[in-house]
From TrEMBL:
Keywords: DNA-binding, Transcription, Transcription regulation. Residues 25-44 bind DNA. This is TetR family transcriptional regulator. One of its GO terms (molecular function) is transcription cis-regulatory region binding. It comes from Pseudonocardia cypriaca. SUPFAM superfamilies: Homeodomain-like (SSF46689). InterPro entries: Homeodomain-like_sf, HTH-type_TetR-like_transc_reg, HTH_TetR. The keyword Signal does not apply. It holds the Pfam family TetR_N.
Length: 180
């Protein structure tokens, strides 16, 4: 069972995703998390502290995902592309937290902190891809492909008909073969 702190962050993510940051209040987060407002304030003393907690969660999940990218049995590129595609979300809630942070960026004065956290996620993924590919241009291309698939995931846009992630990876492997 998740801790009260995690339940609060889960509820905050849900409210951000469903309603946007402007509609989220501490009372609404406490109610959605099933904790008292005092219980919420014990973990997060303000709405700004709650946002900072979400950014910390994003950084932690990004670091865990970067490690999973590096250790993926079928290689970093395949993992990155597969988990970026619709239906292939990375384990650990990174996609959900990332989407909530994007919604937070739309409605907060914490803009620089949000941009810094998103830049950290980008840097983690790039570094993990570079570890496998050893070519910054190929790593960036793989990241851009993953980013495009990730956008489809976030917006619910399906892949083109008669094409699959495996088709995409097969073509990408012509330019960036898997590790030996």
């Amino acid at each position: 069972m998740p801790s009260a702190r995690d339940r609060v962050l889960d509820a905050y993510e849900t409210l951000l995703i469903e309603h946007g940051g402007a509609a989220v209040t501490l009372d609404a987060v406490a109610a959605a998390a099933g904790v008292s407002k005092g219980g919420l304030l014990y973990h997060f003393a303000s709405k700004e502290a709650l946002a900072a907690g979400l950014l910390d969660r994003l950084r932690d999940r990004s670091a865990a995902d970067a490690e999973a990218i590096r250790n993926a049995p079928d290689g970093a590129v395949a993992y990155y592309v597969r988990t970026s595609a619709p239906g292939g979300a990375a384990p650990g809630g990174l996609t959900r937290t990332y989407l909530a942070v994007l919604r937070l960026a739309d409605s907060t004065t914490a803009g620089q902190a949000v941009r810094d956290a998103l830049a950290r996620v980008d840097a983690d993924g790039f570094a993990a891809l570079l570890d496998e590919l050893h070519d910054p241009v190929l790593a960036w291309l793989a990241q851009l492909v993953g980013d495009g698939l990730y956008l489809r995931t976030l917006t619910g846009t399906p892949l083109p008909p008669d094409l699959s992630v495996d088709d995409l990876l097969a073509r990408m492997r012509q330019y960036a073969p898997p590790p030996a």
